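Morning run. Coffee first, then this:
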Amino acid sequence: MKAVEKWLKTGIPCLLLVSGITPSYASDTLSHIKETQTITIAHRDSSVPFSYTTDGKTPIGYSMDICHKFVDALKKELKLPQLKVNYLAVTSSNRIQSIVDGKADIECGSTTNNAERRKQVSFTIPHFFASTRMLVRTDSGIKNWPDLKDKKVVTTKGTTTVKLLNDRDKVRGLNLRLLEGSDHKESFAMIENNQADAFSMDDVLLFGLRANSNTPEKFSVLGDALSTEPYAIMLRKDDPAFKDFLDREMARMMSDGEVTRLYDKWFKKSIPPNNANLNMPMGFLLRDNLRFPSDKVAD
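And here it is:
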């Protein structure tokens, strides 16, 4: 366990013991995985195409495939060919706490790395960059943000979009009536059922929900980008050995072309459950990060 040995050499464990602080497995995930021969992956149920389930089966998606690559690397690093994988379904509201509380070792979904969240958790090198836009019914007449004046706008509870919408409302004086869905599926349903006029969220999630709906032609994704959202795998804070291991593996996958192949699989080809194709070319920010992998993001 080279990564663990590296962490031990830092002297951090000794300092903790001298100070009277008892280190828990939360600060040594690699050792905990080695001891229990189990890793727990937190996932989402409706974050297409990153992390979602079909008919209650094992979660699939772009982020899930990346995390399964991490599992393969852990099997070799820890010499655990039979490493067991447990899955924990989480929502936008409880995903961070599930990592903080040790209920899961990594979260593989569509979570944005930002300064506020880094106070509680850590993130790997980003594997995607999204832009915040909106989904509307094609016949709504809505083209951009000013068209939302006095209208009902839904977003998903616990996401960064909530603050963005509030800020936009204050600056533009749109008098938005903000609604919150418990997850992306519920938020989208509010557009389908005419309970809201627009659903604001990361564009790729909106494209995924639209592509997998029964009538994708009835919905449009539009509007100027409100922000750029770097998606990354989430892990517990203050665990440098585990983060170093995951970052090195992510950088390797980027350099070897594995991330590009996974991107093409989920964003440029037909995907379950309806064989929809997002036809979404890779953005320039991700292309640059593939060339020069870094966990540094602009807040």
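The chain has two domains: 2-127+232-291, 132-228. Good start to the day.
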